[in-house]
Amino acid sequence: MANQISHLLTFNHLTVCLILLLLSQSPQIHSTCRNFCNNIPINYPFSIDDGCGAPQYRHMLNCSATDLFFLTPSGNYKVQSIDYEKKTMTIFDPSMSTCSILQPHHDFKMSEIQSAIIPPSPDTIFILVNCSIDSPVLNHYKSLCFNFSGHSCDELYGSCTSFKLFHLLSNSTPACCFTSYETVKYMSMEILDCTHYTSVYNTDRLEGVGPLDWLYGMKLSFSVPDTGCARCAKSGGTCGFDVETEMVQCICSSTSNSTRDCAGGREISFADSYRTSSFSGLRLLYILALGAIFLLHY
C-alpha cells in the first residue's frame, strides 16, 4: 500500500512538472496587428504593435485612448492624418507656438533613421521668430533664409496675436527667418539665437493667405521599404518582423508566421520550425515518461 502511494505521488509530481514544461515551450502566440488607432488607419510600414509593420519604423507610433502620437527624441507629436497614397503624415506639436498661442520654446529633433526615412516634406517650412541681430541666419548663414510666398516678418508680427508681443517689447520689428528642416536639424534654437519657432505645411498653397489661416504643424514624407509585403497581404497575411532578429515575416494568424505568404504549402520560417519540432519532442517525452511510470507501477 505504501509503495502504491509513493508511486502515485511520483506520478502526480512528474505529471505537473511535464505539463509546466510543455506550456513553457509551446508555440509563441503573436498578438494580432491593430489596423486602427481611433479613427486613423494603421497600415504598412507603420504599426502600433511590436513585431508589426516594417522594423525601420519600430517604436515610432504610440496609440493612446484618444490620440495617435509620433515619437521623436524631442517629444511626442500628435498625428492628425496619414495619407498612404501620397506617403505623407501630418503631425502637430501641442507645445509649439502658433499664430494664436505663444509657448516656451524648444527644439524639434528627429533620430537619424527618422531624418532618413520620414523627414519633413519640402512644402513644410520652419519659421524662426524673434531672432537677435547676431543670429547666424541673419549673418554668415543668411542664405538659409528664403522668401515664403511673398510673406514677411512684418506680416507675421502684425497679424499674429502671440507674436505681437515681440514687436511691442522691442518697439520694432524683430528679425525672423523662413527656413527648411535642414537648418533646425543641425542647429539648436540656442545656436540660431532665435527665441521661438513655428512650422507650417502646404506652403505652396499659401500665397496670398494671411498667417491666421496658415496650416500650422508639419507634414512628413515617408518611404515604404520593398520587402515583398504585397505578396504577404495578397495571401491574407499581415506584414511584420521577428522582434528579436528584426527579420521580415508574414503574420498569418495568432499562432503562425511565414517568411513569405500565408498560402497553402507555405514555407515555414526557421523559428516556427524550431518551435514546432520542440513541441512535438516534448509531447513524445511526456508519453514515454507516462509509459515508464506505468511499468514501474505494475
Automatic annotation (TrEMBL):
It is an enzyme of class 2 (transferase). The keyword Signal applies. Residues 217-254 form the Wall-associated receptor kinase C-terminal domain. It is found in: Membrane. Residues 1-31 form the signal peptide. The keyword Protein transport does not apply. It catalyses: L-threonyl-[protein] + ATP = O-phospho-L-threonyl-[protein] + ADP + H(+); L-seryl-[protein] + ATP = O-phospho-L-seryl-[protein] + ADP + H(+). InterPro entries: WAK_assoc_C, WAK_GUB. It is a single-pass membrane protein. Residues 33-93 form the Wall-associated receptor kinase galacturonan-binding domain. Keywords: Glycoprotein, Signal. Its EC number is 2.7.11.1. It holds the Pfam family GUB_WAK_bind. Its main location: membrane. This is non-specific serine/threonine protein kinase. It comes from Datura stramonium.
